[in-house]
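Pilot study result, target chain (269 residues):
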Amino acid sequence: MHSNSYGPILERIHAALEASRAVFARFTPGAIETEYKVGHDPVTEADRALDAVLRQELLREGEGWLSEESVDDPVRLQRSRVWVVDPLDGTREFVKGIPEFCVSIGYVEDGRPVAGGIYNPATGETFLGSIGAGVTYNGKPSQPSQRKSLDGALVLASRSEVKRGEWKPFENAGFKIRPMGSVAYKLALVSAGLADVTFTLTPKNEWDVVGGAALVQSSGGFVSTLEKTNLTANRRDPLLSGLLACGPFLRELLLALVEPHTQMAANKI
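Predicted structure:
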C-alpha cells in the first residue's frame, strides 16, 4: 500500500486517523452538548478538538489548509499541496447517536485530489488510498462496484435530502435508495465497493467531498461535478454545485439518470 509516491502522505493520513480515534474516545455520540453555527449547522467540542489534532498531525511547512472548523486562510490559494479536511462530517448524526459520521481527510496537489482517508469511529471502518496505490478498507485492498446496470443497484442518498423530498424523482428508477448521513462516509463506501452509487444535486463544500472523491478516484471509480467536469479543489470559493460518484461501469448510466435534474441543481449555487 505504501510503496507508491504518496507513501509518506498515506502514513501521515493514517497517523491522523489514529489520533482522531483517541479524540472520539473522549465523547459519547448521542450525549454531547451542541451549539449551532449560522445557517443552523451543529458544531460540538468534538469538531474543534478533532480539527486541532488533524492540523497537528497533517500540516507541514509550505502546505495549505482548508477545514470546515478553521478560519479560512487565503494563503492556501498560493500552495500547490493542500489539506482539505472535515474533522467531523455528519455532526447531526453524531449528536443523535446515529453511526453515520466520520473524519474526512483529503490531500490535494495542484487542484487534484490525490490521496484521502476516512474513519468512522462508530463502525470501526477505515478507508485509506491514493492515486497509483488504490484503496484499502480496514487494511485490505478493495475495489469499487463492478456492476454494469443500475437495476437493483444500491444508491446512497443524503438523509436530509430524502426528508426534503429531493429524491422523489428517483423512487421508481429501479435501484435501492438508502438514506444515510455524511457525504464523506457515503463516498468512502462507494470507493470500497460497499455501495454502487452516491450522488447529491445539492451544493456541497470541498471539505465535505474531497477526501471521499480522492478515495473513489484512487480505487478506479468515477467522480464528477454536476457540470460533468473533474473535481478541482482548493478554489477560492469552496462551494461545489453537487457531486456524482459510482463504480467505473455505471458512469454513463449515472450521467444520463441525473441529466434532467442537473441544470436545475446547478442554478441553486
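One observation from the pilot: The mean pLDDT is 91. A full batch analysis is planned for the follow-on phase.
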